[in-house]
Amino acid sequence: MNLLYKTDIAGISNLTSYVYTSIANGAKDHFKKRNRETLVDESLEEETQALEEKVLVGELKQVIMDAIEQLEPKQRFVFVETEMKGRSYDELVQETGEKLGTLLSRKNRAIKKLRKMIEEYINEEKNNEKI
Questions:
Q1: How many domains does the chain have?
Q2: Does the global pTM surpass 0.85?
Q3: Which of 72, 82, 92, 110 is packed most tightly, with the most Cβ within 10 A?
Q4: Phi then psi for 84, rounded to 5 degrees?
């Protein structure tokens, strides 16, 4: 399921990992479809596909990191601590003195902003492919 169209992301325990996996799978599908249209030696096709996937995944990682950097500091803090560092909300409540609901709200807003920024990037890439 595509993250951008998923309405309930509460069940995703590691958004970053989910996004990377989703993009890698999407890239594989894209390149398989594109490669079917050309007659290329199979081993060269696999090497090209692997290289293109690495480039796309690397580019997407950079887009995600840039998007994370654009978040408001408090939203970025909660997102990074829970998603990237694996810290619990209880730890953050103790450390910051903030209420759990406040932290959950900040992370939810961060995820919505990230989703929007990533969606804009993907749409821009699709438009560039058409040109």
A1: 1
A2: no
A3: 110
A4: -100, -35
